[in-house]
Amino acid sequence: MSGKPKLHYFNGRGRMETIRWLLAAAGVEFEECFMETKDDFTKLQKNGFLLFQQVPMVEIDGMKMVQTRAICNYIAAKYNLYGKDLKERALIDMYVEAIMDLNELFMTHPIQPADKKEQHFATIVDKATNRYFPVYEKVLKDHGQDFLVGNQFSRADVQLLEILLIAEECKPDILAKFPLLQSFKARISNIPTIKKFLQPGSQRKPPLQEKDLPKVMKIFY
């Protein structure tokens, strides 16, 4: 058991979810240690386990890693999800950074003030359908391959699938104008490790509900 990565976070998606996705895609079993109270968070801080006093934190290979991008980069490189050379890694980084920008909008939507929620959601849909998704649709069209980079499975595919599914949860018809992304979603969802992660009972977390917000906020504030 001690050889498995251990994930420290609250019992929800947030910034840890992409890390869960990448480990699952690589077929790596992991443990989770959930913070339930402010005291749980404070204990991690006082023990010196959080380099910048923030989570997520992942214990892996004898390290206590923090900063989401650093953790994701390490997992991707360790499990061969990061391309075969520097040029492919650069492409993957570009695609992933844009996905994470869009994901940030989705993550912050539940905490928007009530009078700003409608406009914030409209902004998300506009950026998804007019800025981000057309790029990935064009990439798939231009090279005619199954994956985004180098015709091999990478973290870019994992993270694109994650954001496509998040987008559909919020707006079921959001991919209507993107047939290649629809095919991509079906294809990547059928990769055995991904398919397993998408099954009920996996460590994938459900969308954060507004009723759960107070409990999460109490952990951090």
TrEMBL record:
EC id: 2.5.1.18
Enzyme class, UniProt record, top EC level: transferase
Family: Belongs to the GST superfamily. Alpha family.
Gene Ontology molecular functions: glutathione transferase activity
BP terms from Gene Ontology: glutathione metabolic process; xenobiotic metabolic process
Keyword Transferase annotated: yes
Domain GST C-terminal, first and last residues per copy: 85-208
Gene3D superfamilies: 1.20.1050.10, Glutaredoxin
Keywords recorded for this protein, A-Z: Transferase
Name of the protein: glutathione transferase
Location of the GST N-terminal domain: 3-83
Protein origin, superkingdom: Eukaryota
Pfam family, one: GST_N
Organism annotation: Hemiprocne comata
PANTHER family for the chain: GLUTATHIONE S-TRANSFERASE (PTHR11571), GLUTATHIONE S-TRANSFERASE A1 (PTHR11571:SF107)
